[in-house]
Specification:
Helix content: under 10%
Structural class: mainly beta
Radius of gyration: 36 Å
Length: 554
């Protein structure tokens, strides 16, 4: 490494026709070091006996003419540089053995034998490796970091192009797009960053509804004329209520904002694209199965179900339990789609694949190693929220929700129907599948709920003594949003046998399990029985009654 003396002659004294405009001191890979010169004058300039130097060594440039407002790139290997940079044809490439630029700090000087025309001083702490240093204002000295910044171009440099930090006479820039409160509004920050102010401009805003990466005219949802006030920044709030149409989706969509003004001299920063998660108004995702009480040979898991008619992307969604309500739970950090009317399973223990090897590499399984996330054996809170932190579904389960009170370890709780309320015990039952769980497939206790009002019973008939149909799921749909219900079983002579539910608060859809036993716990014999449901609307006290015949087989 060279030892550099800080020389007093590095002070920028006067404006020369050509300046040191950009340079790459610490390139990545095989890209060579390079220095960009720029002719800021209105006339062409011919180089003759001009040197490029650092604090210790100096190299003479060949004779060439640099036209007004054009660039020249000096490097030791022009062919190698062209492999790394797309350099305009109008840019002059000069191949010489450059003074080696230090990786820590150095001076670069443009001079003749007796006169210094321009100089820069850099320290690598001003920027970062693999990115060029750009001069911000060509008419100001570049001997400190106030006028020298690391390139913000996506390629890490603007070799032969206008610097990414160049100050235009008039220039508007979209600084950011933010989205607030789920789907409620967008906020655009517009900056007036030119030397002189632009007063009026227009904003247009698109949402790429069909995710085809093309913003078409029918995806233009907002256009507005705006005026700057006294400040050089402007915030535009776009309410979703102003949109003629909204995407009905649970997915990330790309949005694009464009500003334009006839006075704007730089269009490179007038467009900004980003993506946001759009939450559907419908609660499409529900928790459908929970494996929580396991021994060392089994793995916990949570199954979710998409009960909507659209594909749902769970990227950004988060699964929480009681211990992670106020901190990070299991966050899904990649695209994870659930098809309409289909299942997905969130797993945090690789032992799951020992128990269910067919799901290894299955697109329906989201696996993340998370040894700190675990479900309590007796009771726990579970929620799943989307990327906007809007709750899809939540519940607090209990071991008392099992409908079979013995031998439930390594046995899941299953939802009886995905339309029923997850938060009430009557929506859940013990898995009766021989595998003791049904990840990513229909629950063993699943029961249809009538599209209309009334009671459905499944299976019917059922047999308490059988292995495959040991109980009946009594599901119902009420004409009230919230009600108090009673469900009782009678024999054909009208004698009450047992109350399944007595004065229970319920929402419109619900379900209960009947195991074929009477009030004393004895299993009834085969025959026909009557289910009677009575409901009272909690807000109006209106009543509703329904009955249905159910049979117990041999």
């Amino acid at each position: 490494m060279k030892i550099i003396n800080f020389l007093s002659f590095l002070i920028f004294a006067s404006i020369f026709a050509v300046i040191i405009n950009e340079f790459m001191p610490v390139p990545e890979g095989s890209e060579p070091e390079w220095i960009e010169l720029y002719n800021i004058s209105d006339t062409n300039y011919t180089f003759s006996k001009i040197f490029i130097a650092d604090a210790l060594t100096s190299k003479q440039l060949p004779e060439f003419t640099l036209r007004s407002k054009n660039y020249a790139i000096i490097t030791k290997d022009t062919n190698q540089l062209k492999l790394h940079r797309n350099i305009p044809d109008s840019t002059i490439l000069v191949q010489i053995s450059l003074p080696t630029l230090n990786n820590t700090y150095d001076n670069i000087i443009l001079k003749s034998a007796d006169k210094i025309f321009d100089s820069v001083y850099y320290h690598i702490s001003f920027g970062e490796n693999g990115k060029s240093f750009e001069r911000i204002d060509p008419e100001m000295p570049a001997t400190n970091k106030t006028n020298l910044k690391s390139s913000i171009n996506s390629s890490g440099a603007t070799c032969g192009l206008v610097n990414s930090h160049y100050i235009f006479e008039k220039d508007l820039k979209i600084e950011s797009i933010k989205k607030f409160s789920g789907n409620d509004s967008f906020q655009l920050e517009i900056l007036n960053i030119g030397r002189h102010k632009i007063s009026n401009f227009n904003i247009i805003f698109y949402i790429n509804y069909n995710s085809d990466n093309i913003f078409s005219d029918n995806e233009l949802i907002f256009i507005k004329n705006n005026s700057f006030g006294k400040n050089n920044d402007y915030t535009v709030t776009i309410s979703m209520a102003e949109f003629d149409k909204l995407p009905e989706t649970n997915d990330f969509l790309e949005v694009m904002a464009v500003i334009f003004s006839d006075e704007d001299k730089n269009q490179s920063n007038d467009t900004l694209k980003t993506e946001f998660y759009f939450s559907s108004k419908s609660k499409s995702i529900v928790i459908n199965e929970i494996m929580y009480d396991v021994d060392e040979n089994f793995a916990e898991f949570i199954e979710i179900y998409n009960r909507s008619e659209m594909k749902v992307n769970l990227r950004g969604a988060e699964l929480k339990d009681d211990n992670t309500r106020l901190k990070s739970g299991i966050k899904i950090n990649q695209n994870f789609f659930i098809d309409p009317n289909d299942y997905a399973v969130v797993v945090w223990d690789s032992l799951f694949f020992v128990n269910y090897p067919k799901f290894l590499n299955s697109p329906k399984i989201y696996f993340t190693k998370n040894s700190t996330f675990n479900l309590n054996q007796s009771a726990d809170f579970i929620s799943i929220q989307d990327a906007n932190e809007i709750i899809f579904d939540s519940l607090t389960y209990s071991d008392k929700w099992h409908t079979i009170q013995t031998a439930t370890k390594n046995t899941s709780l299953e939802k009886i129907n995905f339309l029923s309320n997850s938060e009430i015990a009557s929506s859940w039952a013990t898995c009766i599948n021989m595998d003791r769980a049904t990840p990513a497939k229909e629950n063993s206790v699943f029961s249809e709920i009538s599209n209309g009002e009334g009671i459905t019973c499944s299976p019917n008939p059922f047999s308490p003594k059988s292995a495959d149909k040991p109980f009946c799921v009594i599901a119902y749909k009420l004409p009230f949003e919230f009600a108090t219900i009673t469900i009782s079983i009678y024999d054909t002579q009208g004698k009450k046998i047992v109350d399944i539910a007595n004065g229970v608060n319920s929402n419109q859809i619900g379900s209960f399990i009947w195991n074929g036993k009477n009030a004393d716990g004895y299993t009834l014999g085969s025959g026909r029985y009557i289910i009677m449901l009575n409901a009272f609307d909690n807000s109006t006290s209106d009543s509703y009654s329904e009955s249905k015949i159910i049979a117990i087989g041999n």
